[in-house]
Amino acid sequence: MTSEKADGPRRVLRISGADWYDFLQNLVTNDLKKLSDGPVYTALLTPQGKLIADFFLISDGDGVLLDVAEVWGDMLKQRLSMYRLRADVQIEDTDLKVRRGTGDAPEGAVLDPRSPALGWRLYGPEDGDDGSDFVAIRVAQMIPESGVDLGPDSYILEMGFERLNGVDFRKGCYVGQEVTARMKHKTELRKGLRLVHVGDGAEPGAEITRDGKPVGTLLTVAGDTALAYLRFDRIGNGMTAGDVPVTPLA
């Protein structure tokens, strides 16, 4: 089994206007004060705390660039426009593309805020990467991908956003903050991402079972390892995805 080396295409929006900072600060899961130190990884949630989209924010003069998976681009732009109301905020598509790499960073590149292992991101006229196997890196680092491992029913704490610097518990209110804070401080997570070893023929999306009971779902597969979304109380020896053995690693 081999993994594709790249994830899906990206779209880069630009958000500007006199009110852009307060507009986004009141919506997203992370604190925009961190933009002075580099890119911010964050998300927009429903009022019920479920994921709408995850994305990067990058300072850009009198505005900010928003780097989101293409699969969620139209939906996110529409949702942000709904929240805009009478605020002085412009949300525009750009021609910028995203290039990635893990070697020496070219001039103008910024570091991926989720993990040093993911290297740099460069916004300009070209997309692509330096040949790094980003899917294998993501799996090894337990980093979920938009529209692949992350979906509209995801809770960000179950998907590792605290570990990936995607949420700030000290900032003020944002959409979905109450549910997210309650999951952090008042409950114990019962489901979430885990790294697993898989046998030949493992297929992303397959249901994982143990002793005839559902345990979770197999997500991105890279070689003989994979991400899985699992119920913690049912993890153990004897898990399978179809006829393929699944062994917990982390």
Order of helices and strands: EHEEEHEEEEEHHEEEEEE
Helix segment tally: 4
What share of the residues lie within helices?
A: 10-25%
Classified by CATH, the class of the largest domain is: Alpha Beta
Q: Mean pLDDT, nearest integer?
A: 94
**Total domain units:** 2
Which helices and strands, and how do they pair?
Blueprint: E1 10-16, H1 20-25, E2 40-45, E3 51-60, E4 63-69, H2 70-84, E5 90-93, E6 97-101, E7 110-111, E8 120-124, E9 128-129, H3 134-141, H4 177-185, E10 191-198, E11 207-210, E12 213-222, E13 225-231, E14 239-241, E15 244-248
Parallel strand pairs: 6-9
Antiparallel strand pairs: 1-4, 1-5, 2-3, 3-4, 6-8, 7-8, 10-13, 10-15, 11-12, 11-14, 12-13, 14-15
Describe this entry's structure for a reader.
- There is one protein chain.
- With 250 residues, this protein is an alpha+beta fold.
- The chain has 2 domains: 10-185, 2-Layer Sandwich (Gyrase A, domain 2); 191-248, no CATH class.
- Helix content is 15%, strand content 34%.
- It contains 4 helices and 15 strands.
- The protein has helices at residues 20-25, 70-84, 134-141, 177-185; strands at 10-16, 40-45, 51-60, 63-69, 90-93, 97-101, 110-111, 120-124, 128-129, 191-198, 207-210, 213-222, 225-231, 239-241, 244-248.
- The protein has a 6-stranded antiparallel β-barrel with strand order 10-13-12-11-14-15. It has a 5-stranded antiparallel β-sheet with strand order 2-3-4-1-5, with helices on one face. A 4-stranded mixed β-sheet has the order 7-8-6-9, with no helix packed on it.
- A hairpin with a 2-residue loop joins strand 3 and strand 4.
